[in-house]
Design a protein that fits this description.
Blueprint lengths: L1 H5 L3 H11 L2 H16 L4 H4 L37 H4 L3 E6 L6 E5 L20 E3 L7 E3 L29 E4 L3 E9 L6 E13 L2 E12 L8 E13 L3 E16 L7 H4 L18 E19 L15 E20 L3 E8 L5 E6 L11 E20 L9 E15 L3 H5 L4 E17 L3 E9 L9 E13 L2 E14 L3 H4 E3 L4 E3 L5 E12 L4 E11 L2 E3 L5 E3 L3 E15 L2 E12 L10 E14 L3 E12 L6 E3 L4 E3 L11 E10 L2 E8 L12 E3 L2 E2 L4 E11 L1
Antiparallel strand pairs: 1-2, 1-5, 3-4, 6-7, 6-37, 7-8, 8-9, 9-10, 10-11, 11-12, 12-15, 13-14, 15-16, 16-17, 17-18, 18-19, 19-20, 20-23, 21-22, 23-24, 24-27, 25-26, 27-28, 28-29, 29-30, 30-33, 31-32, 33-34, 34-37, 35-36
Helix pairs in contact: 2-3
Length: 712
Amino acid sequence: MYKALKSIPFALLFGLLVAVAPSESRAQSARDIMRMQQQGQGLDDVLGNANPFEAEQGEQVEEPADSTRERKIRKPLESYFFSDSIRALPNFQWNISRDYNRVEVQPLDTTLANWHIDYPFYRRGVGDAALGGLGQASEPLNYFDRPERTDFQLAAPYAAYVYDMENVPFYNLKKPYFNFTYLESGQKKVREEHFELTLAHSISPTTGFSLDYRARGTKGQYDWSRTKNHNLAIAFNHTGKRYTLHAGYVNNHIEARENGGVVGEWAVRDTIYEKPSGIPMRLAGAQAENLYRNNAFFVEQSYAIPLVPLTDYDFSVADLPAVYVGHSFEYNAWSRIYTDIRSPYINERGHKDDAGRFVADTIEYYKNWYINPQQTRDSVYERVISNRLFVQAQPWDRNGVVGTINGGVGLDLHTYSQFALDDYVSGRRGKVKKTSYFAYGSIEGKIKKYVDWGADFKFYPSGYRGGDLRIGARLALTGYLRGHPLVLEGRFSTEKRSAGYFEENLFSNHYVWFSPLRKENETRFEVALRVPDYAFEVSAWQGVVTDKIYYDADSHVAQHDGSVSLTSVYARKDFRIGGLHLDHRVLLQWSTDQEVVPVPLFSAFLSYYYEFWVTRGVLRLQIGLDGRYNTSYHAPGWNPSLGVFFNQREVETGNYPYLDFFVAGKWKRMRIFLKYQHVNKGLFGNDDYFAVAKYPLNPGMFKMGISWGFYD
């Protein structure tokens, strides 16, 4: 048999090895045989001068190992979404785009930076104007950070908490990942709690699943202010060489007791009450409450069609001309139920008599009771089923001068429901259905590592939002100073958008309106200069909005007849002197009409702390102070019945520093912090600690937290 094997021509043996060898080893095996042939070596040399089929007389032949079970080759991550530098990370996460075949990559947050900031809306820029406690509604102080008008406006005040299709995290991990976080503060009856759990596992380098769950809320320092905020995201992803799939399920559940704010600012400023729970609140007796429910499901998939033949040496199609075709489906349903009972409140300092003495006033919180004069149960429902078909052309490579050209068409099916008087007769809840058609596209590219550019548009030619249009463009230039990148970026957008359904049509116990509104028109310019290695950033926005839709001082929907100009300038600089960190974020804003778009002139977040190793490589600590401040202005009010912020003109808030003292540490994979929130309570100032009109922030409170990550 060995002689027969020797008689096989080299050419035939070459072909046989190429045919049976694993794909990634065929080329190497073939080259080895050809090299031996060129050097004059025979088959004996190739086989090591040994006859594997014959043994010396009297020698026992060792049984060959079982070769029927081949070792399964673990394919690497070949997805066109990720560059070599991203693949080299031990762990990373990303979010997907609803419209386009692209992702936004982010590292896993396991550092000490900002770990001690437990309110998520304080982590960006200078933060938000908030009702006061963890899990409660908030609105960014920077006008240009506020959520744009979307289908689900009911969720806008809770944007810092809720999951949606574009912020559900997907993971790529070398090892299974498990992380839990627990924070608590205050006594049991007024405790704030934050529980967070993340489970993620990559079945293979291209396939994985994850579960993210967060439960955040407060029992409330003030009367009738308990809030529960539960958010769940379950995700599955496959990012192969050609085929990609992202799927997820989202559930958001929010329960918020609505106390309506204090009966008067004097109840907080004069400190006549020993405990916050004794301060009288306007809706505490009415037992007002909001309940939000959201269920969403989405699937987005795409398939790559290379325009040139693939070889075994093509690791990814990102560097080849290709066309991607895909489909995106989303089901998203929101509901909100508001309940209360009629219970006027008493303001002990309602007005002064002729002698200058305070006289108590009995006041109705709501002026109107259209449906039931004794109690309220308003419910609204909103659902969108969205389908998108898209094509992405990659003329050369994904990071080329013209990287990708994108185009797509979409169909949104809207369903709205609310209680109406006709429901008394029919016994059934009526539904309104609308349909939106739209087309969208974009083009983007790069010139090496120096230029990154793009442009996009979205147009609704007919249907529910017929005539809506958005056009945008961006350009980023990157230079290097002694190896450190300097990024200059500019953005432009112009948009014509329709009002939301419930802004034009609402029937509830306290508010009723049925009036068509004109489309809003807004143009924005943004310029930013960033030097990441030196923790420096400066940004400027200029916007002009015409026919602005807003909620006026009486909480009614109003539309401004004219234009409002807005300007924001933001700067961030972190200084480091040895272990001393001096972090600064400041914001200046101007609005030409404060009754339509009220903003504070100056806002700031400062964090001064000292960071050092207690045991090098084992335990690292931060000890310092955080401070927040904004100048006085007519801060927004909160309307519990509508679940929106409105432009109240009754009181001004601000001009009060809010300081936190903290100690944060990282011990191997575990992070901990201890913090006393509002450490300056009662030390100076007039106790005017309001961020939203009538809603005081929390007084002094001790907090502690732990976050532990496991990789195994």
